[in-house]
Amino acid sequence: YKGAHVKPGFAEHFYSNPARYKGRDNMFYYDTIEDALGGGQEPHFDGLIFVHSGIYTDEWIYIESPITMIGAAPGKVAEKVVIENTRDSTFVFMEGSEDAYVGFMTIRFNPDDKSAQHHNAHHCLEITVNCSPIIDHCIIRSTCT
């Protein structure tokens, strides 16, 4: 309710069958996390994003507001919701994300080129000045030296 759901392939099905999903007017579905973060203009969106099972690769996740992003999957949630990047920092928290919350997911930085010279400014989590997000029940991994 009032949440944005990131579930690849489901958004098209949801929006093309409005009669089947009657009563879910306050729910929004997106194929990517980037789209969900950009969907903050929806009138009923209150900053809650559920990221469903899957591997989300190479999305630009820059958080500039106090959103709440939670993994949603059966069983061991953090192992089934994987967000990784191979070229840039996976999560970047900017000023304005002081009260942001990210929980129950795996966050990976897994570059193709593992050398430090190409990725010395890229990380799993990049937290800039004037913000202190809450990172809770997450598995954080980097294969870069």
TrEMBL record:
Q: Which residues cross the membrane?
A: none
Q: Does the keyword Nucleotidyltransferase apply?
A: no
Coiled-coil-forming residues are none
**Transmembrane helix recorded as keyword:** no
> Which keywords accompany this UniProt record?
Repeat
- Give the superkingdom in one word: Eukaryota
Protein known as? F-box only protein 11
The UniProt gene name for this protein comes to FBXO11_2
